[in-house]
Specification:
Radius of gyration: 11 Å
Distance between the termini: 11 Å
Number of helices: 2
Strand order of the largest sheet: 2-1-3
Largest sheet: 3 strands, antiparallel
Structural class: alpha+beta
């Protein structure tokens, strides 16, 4: 089942959404977006916890 993520789901005013077949693939997309759009070279533990909690199954 595909996984999805949206920056807005963690409180950011950003229209980025991502979809991937696995959570690992999704996290790679999220990390690349965080680096290029939000200038985050490293995602801290608090932000990572928010991201992980916001990941949804496509059917949600």
């Amino acid at each position: 089942m595909a996984k999805t993520f949206a920056c807005r789901d963690i409180g950011l005013e950003c229209d980025f959404t991502a979809k991937a077949d696995s959570e690992d693939e999704l996290m790679q997309k999220v990390a690349e977006h965080a680096k290029t759009a939000h200038n985050m070279e490293h995602i801290d533990e608090e932000t990572m916890a928010k991201i992980e909690a916001a990941v949804k199954d496509e059917s949600d």
